[in-house]
């Protein structure tokens, strides 16, 4: 395995424990619009998608357009829930600090907006672990995950070769994106489908505490 130059972290579900919160709010918002959705269904059908893709898929199922202000209300209610409930993923801070201390560059690459990443990292006291210019969003590239665009963009901006990058993900689509980019993919399985992550090409990580050892830092 080539020496690692860059560790790229997904945000939701890898650094911040936000997936249950986001999908609970989403399920409630869709149900209120006449599309009954449980938390499990929201996670199964929409997790890991761009918000524009979530809206398009929901509208196809509804057979009509959502209200023009639906997305704005959803994002506001989600942010309020983050302020009330959001916590960091256990041992995420220590893992990032250990990787950085070893001289490996770190960044975040998320499907969500950079403003959302700043919010969630700030609420969980993880924001200062990453340089100001090291937060990337799929909104800045032509295609989101499972396409490799966001990871290739992050590597190029950070000055790292894809073959020397490792990606920590929690969704099959994110793992697929990393593998397609020619990067080593590590799947964090604490709240994810281990079989699906393995099938997409990930090595399995059950605790963020294990990451430094997996990267050969211990």
Summarize the structure.
About 45% of the residues lie in helices and about 10% in strands.
Walkthrough of the structure:
Helix content is 46%, strand content 12%. With 218 residues, it is of the alpha/beta class. It has 2 domains: 140 residues, HAD superfamily/HAD-like (Rossmann fold), CATH 3.40.50; 67 residues, Orthogonal Bundle (DNA polymerase, domain 1). α1 packs across α2, α1 packs antiparallel against α4 and α8 runs parallel beside α9. The longest helix is centred in the middle third of the chain and has 16 residues. The protein is globular. It starts with 5 loop residues before the first strand and ends with a helix.
Shape label: globular
Tally the beta strands: 6
Q: How big a fraction of the residues is strand?
A: 5-15%
List segments where confidence is low: pLDDT < 50 over at least 5 consecutive residues: none
Q: How far from one another are the termini?
A: 16 Å
Secondary-structure element order, N to C: EHHHHHEHEHEHEHEH
- Helix tally equals 10
CATH topology of the largest domain, anyone? Rossmann fold
**Roughly what is the average pLDDT, rounded to an integer?**
96
CATH superfamily name of the largest domain?
Answer: HAD superfamily/HAD-like
Biggest sheet strand line-up: 3-2-1-4-5-6
User: What kind of sheet is the major sheet?
Assistant: 6 strands, parallel
Please tell me the total number of domains: 2
Please bin the fraction of helical residues.
40-55%
CATH architecture classification of the largest domain = 3-Layer(aba) Sandwich
Assign the CATH class of the largest domain.
Alpha Beta
The Cα radius of gyration reads 17 Å
Structural class by sheet pairing and helices? alpha/beta
């Amino acid at each position: 395995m080539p020496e690692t130059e860059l560790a790229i972290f997904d945000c939701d579900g890898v650094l911040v424990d936000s997936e249950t919160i986001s999908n609970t709010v989403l399920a409630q918002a869709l149900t209120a619009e006449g599309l009954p959705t449980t938390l499990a269904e929201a996670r199964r059908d929409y997790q890991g998608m761009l918000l524009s893709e979530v809206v398009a898929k929901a509208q196809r199922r509804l057979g009509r357009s959502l209200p023009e202000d639906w997305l704005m209300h959803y994002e506001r209610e989600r942010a309020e829930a983050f302020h009330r409930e959001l916590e960091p993923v256990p041992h995420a801070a220590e893992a990032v600090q250990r990787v950085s201390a070893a001289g490996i560059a770190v960044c975040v690459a998320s499907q969500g907006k950079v403003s959302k990443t700043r919010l969630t990292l700030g609420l969980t006291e993880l924001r200062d672990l990453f340089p100001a210019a090291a937060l990337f969003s799929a909104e800045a590239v032509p295609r989101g995950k499972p396409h490799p665009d966001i990871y290739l963009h992050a590597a190029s901006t950070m000055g790292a070769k894809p073959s020397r990058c490792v990606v920590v993900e929690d969704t099959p689509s994110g793992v697929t994106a990393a593998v397609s980019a020619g990067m080593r993919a590590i799947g964090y399985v604490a709240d994810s489908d281990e079989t699906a992550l393995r099938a997409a090409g990930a090595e399995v990580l059950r605790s963020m505490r294990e990451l430094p050892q997996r990267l050969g830092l211990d």
